[in-house]
Amino acid sequence: MKPTPLLALLLFAATHCLLVDAGCYMQSPRGMPQLRPGIFKDCIDKISELAELDKTHAPIAFSRKRGVGYPLPQRWYKKSCWIKLDTHNDYDEDVASFMEIAIEAGTLAASCVAKPPHLGGTITVGPRKVMNITILG
């Protein structure tokens, strides 16, 4: 059986998540606003789409600054899954490929959506670690 990109991404995320410290969200106490659980398949479907963008393996500059590479913040939705990519500050800039971002997003989904309480979380990405991916259900 030939592995598909989605299967390869899932296998990598499942093994890589043991090495990454993802910040998974916990539910607020009763009476406070509550997060909704996400469905892992919804997240992986959208992450697979990100991994297959035209310039998947080409490094791209990401920033909130005008005229610098790929504009941030970016949000992607798929049913119960909400994914956001952003920098920590307005002046931050980092370079990464969509494949690298998809792998880190898959790691986050495996750590924080596949496992209870299925609420999502956040993780830093990129060589300078000034971008973060947030997943919410």
General description of the model:
The protein is α+β, with helices and mostly antiparallel strands. The protein is built from 3 helices and 8 strands. The strands form 2 sheets. The protein has a 5-stranded antiparallel β-sheet, with helices on one face. It has a 3-stranded mixed β-sheet with strand order 3-2-6. Strand 4 (74-78) and strand 5 form a beta hairpin. Helix 1 crosses helix 2, helix 1 (5-16) crosses helix 3 (98-112) and helix 2 (40-51) runs antiparallel to helix 3. The longest helix has 15 residues, at 98-112.
**Integer-rounded radius of gyration:** 15 Å
Can you list the strand order of the major beta sheet?
Answer: 1-7-8-5-4
Strand content: 25-35%
Largest beta-sheet details: 5 strands, antiparallel
The shape is: globular
- Sequence of secondary-structure elements: HEHEEEEEHEE
Number of helices in the DSSP assignment: 3
Helix coverage percent: 25-40%
- pLDDT average, as an integer? 85
Distance between the ends: 32 Å
**Low-pLDDT segments:** 13-20
In total, how many beta strands?
Answer: 8
| Structural class by sheet pairing and helices | alpha+beta
